[in-house]
Design goal:
With 231 residues, the chain is of the alpha+beta class. Helix content is 34%, strand content 26%. The protein is built from eight helices and nine strands. The strands form two sheets. The protein has a five-stranded antiparallel beta sheet with strand order 2-9-8-5-6. The protein has a four-stranded antiparallel beta sheet with strand order 1-3-4-7. Helix 4 (35-52) runs parallel beside helix 6 and helix 4 runs antiparallel to helix 7.
Length: 231
C-alpha cells in the first residue's frame, strides 16, 4: 500500500483521471481523512482547463528549472499566472492542438509532484459541434458540450449561460465526469463572470468509451445543473 506521502503526490493524476479504479478509491479514502489538503486540491482543479489553453512552449515555460533563492510556487498559487497566460493565448489564437494538451498534462503533473508525460506534437484534432446539455432541476444555467475521443483520452469543450441572478453569485462550478463504473472525477472548475462563459476546454485521460455522463455542478455540491449522457 502506498504511504501517505506517496498518496499526497497523486493530486494531479487524480484530477487528470489517470488513476486506476482501485487507486481512485484509495486516493479518495486518503483525501476524506485529510480535509485541509482536499481544499488545496480543489483549487488545483481549475489549472487543468487553464493549462489546456496554453501552447506547448507556454506550458513548459512554467517549469523553468533555473535555480533561485525563492521556493517554487505551489500549484494553487500558480493559478493567477496560468489565468493571465491563458487569456493572452486566447486573444492571440483560438486554436488548441493536441500538443498543447499533452504539454499541459506534463506541466500539471510536474506541478503536482509526479512526472509522467512528455509534450509530443500531434495533428490538430477534428472539432465536434457543441450540443445542448439536458437542464437540471434548478433553473438558472444552460450549457452546451462537445465530448471528443482522442488517442490519449477525452477532450471536453463547453460553454454556459447564467440566466438567473443566483447563477452568477455562486463561488464556482465544477465539470464532473462520471464513468460507467460509477466513479467521478472533477476535470475543470471555474468561477462565473458576466452572463456567460464561452470557449472553455478541459481534458482527461479517461477514455471516452468509459464515460457514462458529464455534469456541471455548483462547486462542492452533488446536484447536477446540466447533464450530457453518453450512449
Amino acid at each position: 500500500m502506498p504511504s501517505d506521502q506517496n498518496l499526497s503526490e497523486w493530486d494531479a493524476a487524480y484530477l487528470l483521471g489517470a488513476l486506476t479504479p482501485e487507486e481512485h478509491e484509495e486516493y479518495e479514502r486518503f483525501r476524506a481523512a485529510e480535509p485541509a489538503d482536499g481544499a488545496e486540491q480543489a483549487k488545483l482543479a481549475g489549472a487543468v482547463g487553464l493549462l489546456d489553453l496554453l501552447s506547448p512552449d507556454e506550458a513548459l515555460a512554467l517549469l523553468d528549472e533555473t535555480p533561485t533563492a525563492q521556493p517554487r510556487e505551489s500549484g494553487a498559487s500558480l493559478l493567477p499566472t496560468l489565468a493571465a497566460a491563458a487569456e493572452k493565448r486566447r486573444l492571440r489564437s483560438r486554436r488548441a492542438i493536441v500538443a498543447g494538451m499533452l504539454a499541459s498534462a506534463a506541466a500539471f503533473l510536474v506541478i503536482g509532484g509526479v512526472i509522467g508525460y512528455t509534450a509530443i506534437p500531434q495533428p490538430e484534432p477534428v472539432r465536434t459541434e457543441l450540443q445542448a446539455m439536458a437542464p437540471g432541476q434548478r433553473e438558472g444555467l444552460t450549457a452546451s458540450l462537445a465530448v471528443s475521443g482522442e488517442p490519449w483520452g477525452t477532450r471536453l469543450d463547453w460553454e454556459c449561460r447564467y440566466t438567473k441572478p443566483w447563477a452568477t453569485d455562486v463561488a464556482g462550478y465544477d465539470l464532473v465526469v462520471i464513468t460507467r463504473d460509477g466513479a467521478e472525477a472533477t476535470v475543470a472548475s471555474w468561477s462565473p463572470f458576466g452572463q456567460e462563459a464561452t470557449g472553455m476546454a478541459a481534458s482527461t485521460l479517461i477514455p471516452t468509451t468509459d464515460i457514462r455522463a458529464v455534469e456541471i455542478r455548483e462547486a462542492g455540491t452533488p446536484m447536477p445543473l446540466a447533464t450530457t449522457t453518453l450512449a
